[in-house]
Design brief:
single chain, about 350 residues, Rossmann fold, Dna Ligase, domain 1, four-stranded parallel beta sheet, 17 strands, globular, binds adenosine monophosphate
Length: about 350
Amino acid sequence: MLKPGATIGILGGGQLGRMVASAAARLGFDAHIYTDEEDSPASRVAARTTVASFDDEAALANFAAVVDVVTTEFENVPAHSAEALVASGALVRPGANALAIAQDRVLEKRFLNEAGVATTPYAAIESLGDLEAALQGVTPPAILKTRRMGYDGKGQARLASTDDATPAWEAIGAQPAILEAMVPFEREISVIAARGADGSFAAFDPPDNTHESGILRVSRAPSTLPPHILEDAIAATRRVADALDYVGVLTVEFFVLRDGRLLANEMAPRVHNSGHWTEAACVTSQFEQHVRAIAGWPLGPTDRFARAEMHNLIGADMDDVPALIADPDVRLTLYGKRETRDGRKMGHFTRLVR
Ligand code: AMP
């Protein structure tokens, strides 16, 4: 169990790292960010920063020597960097296994199925020939996604018919991929949960999520689905966390079919955009919960004391900030990014629904 004053190392310098670092500071910890980016959003709220490549083994070893635990704020941190940290004696939570699985969409789906969690039918694709063959089993409409490095709908192409094989393969850059059957979902939800170092488990109320162009727009908590479906989703997430011997906050995104069946879409070994409302509406935020878990502290209560609606501020949505700061029912969080760009997540706000 880490004592206040201990140092929490965070791989990655984005907004999730910024919010985890802030929560860590509130509990008396120092955050040390490791990022390959100068002047990152996270480094500006942290006690210390190392700016180095994720392949710089000497820098990783130095980092391992000065932090008490290491965590990650984005899943595309190379798994070999996490392994190098472990080899240097660092306590890495969640472990490199969770990272390796979550950053490869094929390993991820295979792992979810092995943990007894259903997904849409899929096929691993290495070539255009594989794709043409797979389209006989995974029939269109379908979606082709790069195996690695995809996020916010990037690296994806949709196929309306088998004729789309060549353009879709080219659109994703002709690289190892996964072909997924398009899911005619009624709803998207996510489970944001935490597993403690002692195996304890706590989930927040799952929110309903709305995406546009593959990017999250709004999360509404709690989901309006019947409780038994939400309980099933939480139970599935717990199986995933237990199978990974996971420590920290874990998110699993699900499609919900009209008949109530759940299909897992993906898992994120970290705090999640669809859990940001917890900072405004719950006794413990997802960020504090993650810090508690990786510090070996007891998990905090996840009780929600209001209904909440979280909206992302993307690109030009920043023009709404003057109105939002004047609204008494809104809690605004900005990420301190120096430059506003189209499609870039700049902040979010949570409206408490009373
Ligand atoms: P992902 O990058 O896998 O999280 O996908 C981003 C969003 O695209 C999801 O939240 C869905 O809205 C949509 N999407 C991804 N995969 C599928 C699928 N197999 N069927 C239907 N919609 C999908």
